């Protein structure tokens, strides 16, 4: 797996982003590593905010911040030209820059020159390890639970992190396995599955969740969505390579269409996601089964949350939770019942 070292504390760089769901990298760091995130920088007045103190680059240096972390994840994963002046200034000030986008920091001449001049580091997270094998589909020891989504950016990472936290609190042997740039930044290791050449995606997933002891659970961060018109391919490869024993369907309350493709694609039902995940996942694990539903309820009134979750649970017949509001213990109890030690 890829291991990274990022020097804290962090300034979260938000560029010109105005949509919260496209600042999911920064939001994930603030949610799961709040002690490391000390400020934010937006280049526009109406930019998205993560609730951190606003700082200029010089104020960040004066406050002892060591790293500028690009907190956005735009479709296509680029770094806009309009951001380069600020990023160059950051490098010249001696701040490390960390990015999880597809564009490589080291491939931008002016950033590379600035970093060489000041001695700062340019850290590209979205670079897979070398010599990934083709997947073989062979049964591996240990157990695996994979997060699958009705869409992108619905809470797969948060669900996996919450499950790992709650499983450990319940005395279980479990580890979060990061398959995306934000998860890798949080965990310090993982494989950016969506940056792997397509022939090797399943092999990368096998490396991400290798053989382990019989009582061990890999809690695997999902990617994309099995019904997604743009990113379904990475979901398929991760599912087949992960060889999960169990999976959790993740969704965002109130979302009705694929984000970014709203005019063309309605979201699949939970039942459709379960059926298709089992159909594809059974290629490498015929015993695959769904153990719960994880819902991001941030977009519905708190007074409606309980009824919303209860309606899904009654319809689907599986424990349904908001992992950040009530924890994932009920899903874990179902997991334990389905897979007794």
Q: What fraction of residues sit in β-strands?
A: 15-25%
Main sheet? Answer: 6 strands, parallel
Give the beta-strand count.
13
The value of Rg in angstroms is 20 Å
Instruction: Give the rounded overall mean pLDDT.
Output: 94
Tally the helices. Answer: 11
Highest CATH level, the class of the largest domain? Alpha Beta
> Which strands sit side by side, in order, in the main sheet?
8-10-7-11-12-13
Q: What CATH architecture label of the largest domain applies?
A: 3-Layer(aba) Sandwich
Distance between the termini: 27 Å
Which residues form runs of ≥5 with pLDDT under 50?
Answer: none
Please bin the fraction of helical residues.
25-40%
- At the fourth level of CATH, the homologous superfamily of the largest domain is P-loop containing nucleotide triphosphate hydrolases
CATH topology of the largest domain: Rossmann fold
Q: Structural class from helices and strands? A: alpha/beta
Number of domains: 2
Shape: globular
Order of helices and strands: EEHEHEHEHEEHEHEHEHEHEHEH
InterPro entries: DgcN-like, DgcN-like_C, DgcN-like_N, P-loop_NTPase
Protein name: DUF1611 domain-containing protein
Domain D-glutamate N-acetyltransferase-like N-terminal: 49-128
Organism: Kordiimonas pumila
